[in-house]
Amino acid sequence: MEDIIRLDSIDQYNKLYGLETDHPLVAVIDLRKAARDLPPHCTINYGLYALFLKQVKCGDIMYGRQPYDYQEGTVTSFAPGQVVSVRRNPDVKLMDVQGLLFHPDIIRGTSLGQEIRRYSFFSYSSNEALHLSEDEKQLFKDCLEKIRQEISRPVDKHSKRLIAMNIELLLDYCMRFYDRQFITRSEVNRGILVRFDELLDEYFQSGMSESEGLPTVKYFADKVCLSPNYFGDLIKKESGKTAQEHIQRKIIDIAKDRMIGSDKTVSQIAYELGFQYSQHFSRLFKKLTGTTPMEYRRPD
């Protein structure tokens, strides 16, 4: 039976590996210095934010049912509330892993605390780890060193803000690196965009909208084995529109065809498209076309 490990504090994490705790809310970790290791199989329930630069493939990480796509020189990231299964490779003796852990309290009341949801990569899951070049790895380590230096200083009235600013700098670099990764994987991404359009057509042509309701971004993300956040970011970067905008545009296109090509009422068309209430459909139609469904249908 797998061990279940809850990590709600920095000290819990450090004790797990036999490391010293320099700050109660932030840790820059280097597992090459660890005195202990995880059990061979375990499940970790994170109560912290974490980013790890792994220089060696030290085992398998499962987020939900999907494996993390990581190898040497990749960054994996986790947020409070995420549960991860770990199977350690017994042949790897040196855990060449460096990273950052921080408790939500360290960013509470700071600009980073207000913007933390912007860093959507914390919710990426399968096939979505960040693969770094040598220069990017060095930048990552430089940011860690700045944070380490700050948490090693005596605490003063500037400490929390400076620590949060340096964490934010690291997260901004990771956002930049992910943008670069989206570009370098553009051919694969275009294939996912094409598949998204196909799945949209299938959803409405099969009548699923009538039985299951309006499609969600999560539905399509699951179909292409991506997390909703990664899928949404990929679609936005590849097309300039959000996944939700693609869904809404498809709904309106189909609605226009059905209003012109059939005698069905607006309420019937709205129901077939997955709306519980026709006024919600009419509101979306007016928002995206500038006219109501009845005005669109009315002959000049």
UniProtKB/TrEMBL annotation:
Superkingdom: Bacteria
One function term, GO molecular function aspect: sequence-specific DNA binding
Pfam families membership: HTH_18 (PF12833)
InterPro entries in the cross-refs: Homeodomain-like_sf, HTH_AraC, Tscrpt_reg_AraC-type_HTH
Keywords, sorted A to Z: DNA-binding, Transcription, Transcription regulation
Domain HTH araC/xylS-type intervals: 198-299
Keyword Transcription regulation included in the entry's annotation: yes
Protein name: AraC family transcriptional regulator
Native source organism of the sequence: Candidatus Cryptobacteroides excrementipullorum
Upper classification of the organism: Bacteria, Pseudomonadati, Bacteroidota, Bacteroidia, Bacteroidales
